[in-house]
Structure prediction request, 284 residues.
Amino acid sequence: METEYKIVSIGTIINRENECRLEVDPQYQGAFLGLEQFSHIDVFYWLDANDNDAGRAVLRVHPRGDRANPLTGVFATRSPLRPNPIAVSCCRVLAIEGCSITIDAIDARDGSPLIDVKAHLPNKDETEDIRVPDWINENKAD
Amino acid sequence: METEYKIVSIGTIINRENECRLEVDPQYQGAFLGLEQFSHIDVFYWLDANDNDAGRAVLRVHPRGDRANPLTGVFATRSPLRPNPIAVSCCRVLAIEGCSITIDAIDARDGSPLIDVKAHLPNKDETEDIRVPDWINENKAD
Prediction:
């Protein structure tokens, strides 16, 4: 049985030429304590452009919209088309000022709703141990 | 301005002694195509036990509930207490049968709602380049 849960936006991703940062709503400033001790964060955001019945019903894609990539189930990709349009990217923190976090880069549309920020911890299995299909190495999975 | 979005459960995490797997709802079977080519997946789930006004209002915690760990903003942890109770874990895939994915291990409550599965791609910054505070190395961030 399908159950529904509620996600709220906690800020906005600014992603323009020469400007890449997270603007977190001021009510969450208390949640920043100690964040400057981490080099990387996991940035969770909502793929709002794909948040509609059609986008959420897609189960298979040619990754990156390239028909040279094999038709692939969305769980085997990081496609923005999926049942729940959530995205996460590991980003390097360059600066924190007030509720603004400047990051190195993110593959998110400017204005995307931010939904979470988590400390990024090293993954013991990385990187030599991760197996991916051949088409990934010429492209990317999303 | 706070905006709300809808997450739906797409299955359930089974996490018992000698049994660790994702039971995905059959309607999503089409999304599995090609998943067997990946050694690891990112498993997204909902921290439903903390999905209440009190849990979502917590901005600072002693990580892992241990007062020996410094009071820390939830964005600088992976605490289950946070504005949006989302969790993600990188898991090794052991077997896929129908809509059931057996994984090596996950730090999730048995019965947790599953909300997404994504192919895990190697992170170029891992692992020597990730900086974390000292308290992480004796404990964990959540």
In short: Helices of chain A lie at 53-57, 134-138. Chain A touches chain B through 68 residues (CB under 8 Å). Chain A has two domains: 1-47+85-123, 52-83.
